[in-house]
Structures are given as C-alpha cells and as structure tokens.
Specification:
The protein has about 325 residues and is an alpha/beta fold. The chain is about 45% helix and about 15% strand. An 8-stranded parallel β-sheet has the order 1-10-7-6-5-4-3-2. A two-stranded antiparallel ribbon has the order 8-9. Helix 7 crosses helix 8, helix 9 packs across helix 10 and helix 10 packs antiparallel against helix 13.
C-alpha cells in the first residue's frame, strides 16, 4: 500500500498543526443549537468551504471534516440516518476541494465522533453494531476523498476498538483521540496510561493517538505527559480547548486567548507532541497565534507539570488518574465485599 498522506507529511516535519473548533465556528455563522451541522454539507456548502479554508489560511496542515456526528446513531435523532453516506461523502469532498486548492500539502481528516450509545452490558450497543455504524461512515468519507479517518472525543475503550476495526474494513489509515474530562480520565474511567497500552494492542493501531477536548489546555497537557511517560513511540495528538467555557450573554464563550493557545502549542511541541491543534472555542485567530509561536520560538526542554500550571493555569483536579488516585479507583477500594 502506498504511504498515506499523513504518514508522508509526518516524515518531513517535527510537528504538524491541526485545525480548531468546528461547532464554535459554525455557531458564529448562524448554526442554531440542536441543529445537526452535517446537514450544512448539503444545504450550506459555502459555509463549510469557508470553515475549512479559514483553518488552512491560519496555517493548519490538517483539518477535520464537518462530519463529527455523521453516524447513523446520531443522525437518527434528526431522521437523517438514511443520509450517512451522502453527508460524509460531501463533507469530505468539500474538504478535498479546499485542500487541493491550497498550493501545499494539507491533509483532509474525516471526523468520526462517538455514536452516543452505551455498550452492553450496561447499554444495548453491541460491538458488531458499532463496527457497522463506523464502517458506513468511513466508506462515505473515503468516497469523498478524505486522506485519513479521524476518530475523536471517544470515552469508551470498546468504542475505540470498534472504530479501529471499521477503519480496517474500509481500508483507511486512521488516527484516534479520547476525551479526558473527569479527573484525568475519560467518562468511562480510562487513564492516559491505559489508553497508550490499549492502542499498542490493537490489530490495526492508529497512525497517531492522543487527547482532544476535555477540560482545558492545562489538563490536556497533563494527559499528554501521561502518554509520554509510557515511552510510546507512536506520534501523539493534542487538541485542547481554548480555555474553559463560560456562559456569557446567552451563549457559551471560551476564555482562552490566542496568547494562551500559543503557549499551549509550544508546550505541546516541547513535550514531544507531533500533531497540535485546538478543540472547542479555538478560532482562526488562535490558530494563527499557535502557528506563529511554533515557527518562531526555539524548542525547549520537556515541560514539567509545574511548567504547565504556571503557563496555562491550574488543573481542574489534583490527580490525572495515573497514580491510582482517580475517582474510579477510590470507589473500588471502599466497596464492601
């Protein structure tokens, strides 16, 4: 198999810059709360072109397609489960158009978000059903010309494994990030160390793995240090939110400045992260500041937890879960036999 576009680009550079927020940018263009953004791929393609182009113009080497909720389980909530292939194909094709016009190598990453369903035995989602849901979406993204599948904001290991299997079925290279938002763990209790271990055991491991979304840039960087501590040689992805969400004048506003995100980008690079981007609240002005800082500031030593706190602000919890002090462990210890 020919080397995929992302692996090729990673081999030429120490770091690559990914894009910022999809939702925040689309809300600014008039997307209403509760409206599935994927429908805009068909209904308002120029807005989606503008979303992609703004990331490329701000210096992104990789941008994600507007297909985060483009799986049958999520689209079913809007009676659009029959449109999975179409919405993903067009979301990727619009991206291909912008990337190919850019005059440089830009990777189109097909965004694949969680199903929103809970796996058995607690919920009703089976492994086979999850693989089928992700595979259908992957085929649409492949048809539209995505270079790589980008599985993101996952909290259950079962879901990550199902997405890996779907990527193999589609014959697509993939990357996968989880969201660590509960005292350094995912909602389902996975720590950074546990994720790094899981990734290496997959029959079809991702090109790169890491963390996205979560609480704020400082928490995300602490999770990144957790990945690095495992000694993994696989490229790591960091896509942190632009600060912490604050409710302001009837809408959610992220308090992270372009300067804060520039600090975060440099810390991520110095920690050894290969793919650096933003998540919720990250706008083109944040990306421009990140790119400028990455290009102009010399590489420094790997940051410590103290460096991260000093530059990005306090952590939201005392522990990142890897020391056995996370909530899940403590709960188990206290259970009566």
């Amino acid at each position: 198999m020919a080397t995929d576009a992302l692996t090729k680009l990673l081999s030429t550079r120490d770091w690559l810059m990914a894009d910022g927020a999809t939702g925040t940018n689309l809300f600014n263009m008039g997307l209403s709360s509760g409206e599935p953004p994927e429908l805009w791929n068909i209904d308002k393609p120029d807005n989606i072109r503008k979303l992609y182009a703004s990331a490329v113009e701000a210096g992104s080497d990789i941008f994600l397609t507007n297909t985060f909720g483009g799986n049958a389980a999520r689209l079913k909530l809007h009676n659009a489960q029959g449109r999975v292939r179409e919405l993903n194909r067009v979301g990727a094709a619009l991206g291909r158009e912008i990337a190919d016009k850019s005059g440089r190598t830009v990777v189109v990453a097909g965004s694949v978000g969680p199903t929103g369903e809970i796996f058995e035995p607690i919920g009703s989602l089976t492994h086979a059903a999850a693989v089928e849901i992700f595979h259908e979406q992957a085929e649409g993204l492949k048809e539209g010309g995505a270079d790589v599948l980008w599985v993101e904001t996952i909290s259950a290991p079962e879901e990550y494994r199902a997405a890996a299997e779907a990527a193999a079925l589609a014959g697509m290279p993939w990357c996968g990030t989880m969201s660590f938002d509960t005292a350094g763990r995912t909602m389902m209790g996975v720590t950074s160390a546990a994720m790094a271990e899981m990734v290496e055991k997959l029959p079809n491991p991702p090109i790169a793995f890491g963390a996205n979304c979560g609480v704020g840039a400082s928490d995300l960087m602490r999770t990144v240090l957790g990945f690095m501590a495992t000694g993994s040689q696989r490229p790591v992805i960091a896509k942190g939110n632009a600060g912490i969400p604050k409710f302001h004048d009837g809408h959610i506003h992220y308090d992270g400045t372009p300067e804060l995100m520039a600090e975060y980008a440099v810390l991520a690079r110095d920690a050894g992260v290969r793919i650096i981007g933003g998540c919720c609240g990250t706008m083109p002005e944040h990306l421009k500041a990140m790119r400028a800082a990455l290009e102009s500031r010399p590489k420094g030593p790997r940051p410590t937890v103290e460096d991260i706190q000093a530059k990005l602000g306090a952590f939201s919890s005392a522990s990142d879960g890897t020391d056995g002090e996370g909530p899940a462990r403590r709960e188990r210890r206290g259970r009566r036999g």
